[in-house]
Amino acid sequence: MHLVPAERAGHRIIDGHRVCDAVAAIGDPDRVRAWADRFSLLADANRLALLLALHRAGPLAVSDLAVATGMRDPAVSQALRLLRAAGAVAGEKEGRVVRYRVVDEATARLLDEYAANAPV
């Protein structure tokens, strides 16, 4: 049981090789937390809708995203602030207009997976 952390080594283990496989599959706790945080961003239907719109249509302004998603401008802005803080999206200013786009590659891959499995 070389992968079992020392603080858990004294626990009763039934299938040692599977426990080691499970520990290896879980991997680094910080990486697990980062992915959990990424999934929590996607767990909100409004944020997911914004990400899907941005991923598929490309850079969009807040007002355009509001029309596309049926959300109000302030709600879009608030969600984008959260997504921007998490590093999932970035805004590029063109004059007075800020257009947002998906910049996190891991999030983009998850959105691709969603699109590939969405009903037609």
Automatic annotation (TrEMBL):
<feature type="domain" description="HTH arsR-type">
    <location>
        <begin position="27"/>
        <end position="120"/>
    </location>
</feature>
<keyword id="KW-0804">Transcription</keyword>
<dbReference type="InterPro" id="IPR000835">
    <property type="entry name" value="HTH_MarR-typ"/>
</dbReference>
<dbReference type="InterPro" id="IPR051011">
    <property type="entry name" value="Metal_resp_trans_reg"/>
</dbReference>
<dbReference type="InterPro" id="IPR036388">
    <property type="entry name" value="WH-like_DNA-bd_sf"/>
</dbReference>
<dbReference type="InterPro" id="IPR036390">
    <property type="entry name" value="WH_DNA-bd_sf"/>
</dbReference>
<protein>
    <submittedName>
        <fullName>HTH-type transcriptional regulator NmtR</fullName>
    </submittedName>
</protein>
<dbReference type="GO" id="GO:0003700">
    <property type="term" value="F:DNA-binding transcription factor activity"/>
</dbReference>
<dbReference type="GO" id="GO:0003677">
    <property type="term" value="F:DNA binding"/>
</dbReference>
<keyword id="KW-0238">DNA-binding</keyword>
<dbReference type="InterPro" id="IPR001845">
    <property type="entry name" value="HTH_ArsR_DNA-bd_dom"/>
</dbReference>
<dbReference type="InterPro" id="IPR011991">
    <property type="entry name" value="ArsR-like_HTH"/>
</dbReference>
<keyword id="KW-0805">Transcription regulation</keyword>
<dbReference type="Pfam" id="PF12802">
    <property type="entry name" value="MarR_2"/>
</dbReference>
